[in-house]
């Protein structure tokens, strides 16, 4: 399946076959026009069961191949992602509404992850560790956990699946993947790439569908590791459930209520640039998007005037057009969620500075009247750490300006006063302030003089507190999909123990 959407319902990829199953169908929609793109089968418990069975039966043979042989399949996918960059970037944009440079960056991030995982096949995979006892050799070795269930979100419909699956597969696991229900077309194309790459039957399986299919994967005892990227609500449910099952592991990366601290020593051009990018790129629909800007009183008025001016004018429009900065929201229900958070901020006392929630008719491109349009919403509010609007993730172009007085300690205290801890940034020319933020901000991804979006795959990606556990993404996923064996071998003829433990066997005389 390529550029042209079709009438035919696309199925699941299970055990090396395309199957339709007996579930109902659903449609993928272009969020910029509201038009249907293509029809897909909705996965049922029976489809998931078949996929898990295929993954389980394929495991031993796949595990027994060398890292380098496994990675060969991934290199084919790497080349296909690069060769089809323009085409796939447009498909991402059509299906999830991100503007075209972001659609293409999603595909680029995917091949970066594949490159990292496949390249890593030729790198050392463990440690040689010293022993107290001269005659002993100790090693840390890794082995695959088994069947990995991958549940991925719509906002990075090509990159995030590879965050999970590239590493899981090269490490020797088999995979059952459910793409987001909003982006099944991207899911279909990724599955076709695995087929093109000749991945052995059952090693990679894809079941389209909704949360019920996802739950059928995560709840099944044949799944050894669950990798989840998505909402905090679903992620915590998975982590709770899986946490109670011995031997099973969940690595979940969830949302954020990310903040940027702009101190009295900030360069204002950098501050404005970083804040606009962080709040409005992807229409605020990144888990790393910023919804709080914590600004020192000495620079507050200047920052506010310049930020508001750009937020009033930032180009919302057709995501396929090169001059668009923000595309639409993903779906009608999400527009309603964003509306409810804008209303909540008002109810909690916001002074609204920019309200482009309802765009002017003239701002909506021709032929896009049924798209899910929203524009920036910017407010200032008297700081109170308990306000819901400062603690709950909206996942939209909705951002609070919070004025602070005092030192960097105060700014970081405000920054940390949310249940989340995914990404954050500080804008300052003072290295002591930067280092204080680096050491005390409660986040997994921290930036200085940059937006808090745009992480590269060779860094760990994940958060603290409510934002996640176990790093399901980018290079650190390796921890979630492998077991470690501490292997110690005796080269001497006698047994000698560490810690001064006696190795003598004492026999009682009577
Ligand atoms: C997400 O925010 O949902 O760091 C993922 C970034 C991207 C990934 C974002 N590499 O902005």
From TrEMBL:
Keywords: NAD, Oxidoreductase. SUPFAM superfamilies: ALDH-like. One of its GO terms (molecular function) is aldehyde dehydrogenase (NAD+) activity. This is Aldehyde dehydrogenase (NAD+). Residues 1-36 are annotated as: Disordered. The keyword NAD applies. The keyword Oxidoreductase applies. Residues 18-484 form the Aldehyde dehydrogenase domain. InterPro entries: Ald_DH/histidinol_DH, Ald_DH_C, Ald_DH_N, Aldehyde_DH_dom, ALDH7A1-like. Homotetramer.
